[in-house]
Amino acid sequence: MALERACVQVQAPHLEAASSPYQGAAGSRRFHNPVVEASSLNGETSRAAWPIVVGGCHRSGTSLLRRVLDAHSRIHCGPEVKFFRDFYGDYFDDPLAPYRFAQTGRAVLPEDELLDVLGHAFVDLHERAADHAGKARWADKTPENVLYAMQWQQLLGDAWLMVHVVRNPLDTLGSMDDIEMPLTFPPGLDARIAFYRRYTQAGLDFEANYPDRYERVVYEELVGSPETVLGRLMNQLGEALEPAQLEFNAVPHQPGLEDAAVTETTAVHRESVGHWRRNLTREEAAMVWVSTSDLWERIDPGGRIWAPPAPRETEATEVCRRPDADGAELRRNWP
What we know:
Elements: H1 2-9, H2 34-41, E1 52-55, H3 62-70, E2 75-77, H4 83-87, H5 101-105, H6 111-132, E3 137-141, H7 149-156, E4 161-166, H8 169-174, H9 189-209, E5 214-218, H10 219-224, H11 226-236, H12 243-246, H13 276-279, H14 282-299, H15 317-320, H16 328-333
Helix pairs in contact: 9-14
């Protein structure tokens, strides 16, 4: 139980080492991206040759998007492969930490070089998996990918795309109680709010630094207008939306690590929107919104896509919009 909690409660030291986590430009990458380079030699230089990296806070819809992408005839997006999390040993109280493969490898190579060696194998794994599936390109989906953009930049240079999946903070945090993940989610609402902020902020930071390689999928938009949202996303990825993607579980997918609930879903649906009311009290909902509304405003200015229910009294509105406020007044007036 203690092993997994480490990676979600504390900012890992390797993520704080540089003043900016996005300094690894194409010229500083450690090895080549053979798929992209081969495509360039064949005259295919569009984004359709680039790997796709999917991430976002847990419970935001990343597993759903993984299956939608994997249903495309040209894209292989398998179940989660926990490369970076294992490489950096992002676990609390791991009694086997000194014996882990990547940790023992640090005895013979500096960490930076070790990442080159093992990272090359990780990329090769995806290329081979796509080849086995008879598909032209690959995608990697793990929620924590947004935390490791610097490392992806080192491995792939500038020839990759980030797809950041976001969901409103109330439903994201409220749904964490629906699934047993004690090794992933920290206990306590305050810690989970910090968890949500860390993941969401990391994705927005990548957007600020690499807007041309960032695509955002807002869960509420996706389930409201799946064909429109997915059509727009696939166009930005250099692909065309295929009918099979709208009925993503009609095609086979490799079993593995993912949200088990997605295997029972027949199509994209809106049933989970507003789910927070089942698990959050009025006071908890107000606390979440006070603590996260600044991030959501950056994602959805003006609440065009999603907005929390209006407080009972208008004077609470300004409290709602100030993440540094006490929030007591808002909690009293939350519907």
